[in-house]
Design a protein that fits this description.
single chain, about 290 residues, alpha+beta, Beta Polymerase, domain 2, 2 domains, three-stranded antiparallel sheet, 10 strands, about 25% strand
Length: about 290
């Protein structure tokens, strides 16, 4: 079970995020778990992480569901949090701050035009739910410095295609397709990935990289409500956030992934207007760990 929060974007996704922490002299790791990150050499490294949420157990029948509560960090704590991943990857604080300062400058033009672009998209997709963001300097600088094994960003945030990102969400595929046409007619299409016609691991959506008249690129993810819901739910299958989920994947992985495919196919039928689509059965292994859809 989960609450709504922003992610891949950090927008559309209702996901749990694990955060790396610095705790000098910390001996109790019972509330931590391990997470792998990739350093600047491409090597996978394991670090201790904890959730950025405070877990509160709420009884529901015989099962206990995890509810997450926001934990606020001071600016100083936020900087320490940011440095853990940089430091673990071999960067000094000065190097981290230089990367971040460079990103602030590169992102200025995106922040300056964000509202205008958002307004244009809202006008073309009237009635749709629209979410948007400009990447934070730490996220953007870390991506070009650490998450670029092919070297396509050349260490420069200016080369990011998704520094500005939006999500357009409709309750049906037909209206979403009309929005896609309007957007692709107005803006230059740099890249289009149609995961509705060609699902990727049962994931459905249309991802667009568009370019405005000034040459600025931005990403728009086009999803139905069901596609967005499925993507958020499916995230835990590949990145289980609790011991119970991890164990369920080990013991009942085939059952869980089979259900993921069936529910994705079911949503596709509903989104396309099929009235008699049958909701697939939800096995106990799914219900007790990830929850059932819809």
């Amino acid at each position: 079970m989960r609450l709504d929060v922003d992610k891949k974007f950090g927008l559309d996704s209702k996901i749990w995020s694990y955060n790396i922490i610095i705790m000098i002299g910390m001996k109790d790791k019972s509330k931590l778990t391990k997470k792998q990150i990739t350093d600047k050499t491409g090597k996978r490294t394991t670090v201790w992480v904890k959730t950025d949420k405070e877990e509160v157990k709420t009884p529901k029948g015989k099962e206990e569901l995890e509810v997450k509560k926001e934990i606020k960090r001071t600016p100083e704590e936020e900087k320490e949090f940011e440095f853990v991943k940089w430091g673990d990857a071999g960067f000094t604080r000065d190097e981290m701050e230089k990367h971040q300062q460079k990103a602030v400058k590169a992102l200025k033009s995106h922040n300056d035009t964000f509202k205008q672009t958002e307004s244009e998209i809202s006008e073309m997709a009237k009635g749709a739910e629209i979410k948007g963001r400009v990447k934070a300097p730490d996220s953007a600088s870390y991506k070009v410095a650490m998450r670029d094994p092919e070297g396509k960003y050349k260490g420069d945030v200016k080369n990011l295609k998704d520094a500005t990102g939006f999500m357009v969400i409709r309750d049906n595929q037909k209206d979403l397709d009309k929005d896609i046409k309007k957007l692709t007619d107005k803006y230059k299409v740099i890249e289009k990935k149609d995961y509705v016609k060609n699902p990727k691991d049962n994931y459905r959506a249309v991802h667009l990289i568009l370019q405005d008249d000034s040459g600025k690129m931005f990403e728009v993810q086009m999803k139905t409500e069901n596609q967005s819901k499925w993507a958020s739910w499916n995230h835990d299958i590949y990145k289980p956030m609790t011991d119970a989920q991890a164990k369920a994947i080990e013991t009942s992985g085939r059952i869980i992934k089979s259900y993921a495919k069936k529910i994705s196919d079911y949503f596709a039928k509903v989104d396309s207007g099929v009235k008699d689509a049958v909701v697939p059965a939800c096995a106990e292994a799914v219900a007790l760990t990830f929850g059932c859809l819809p």
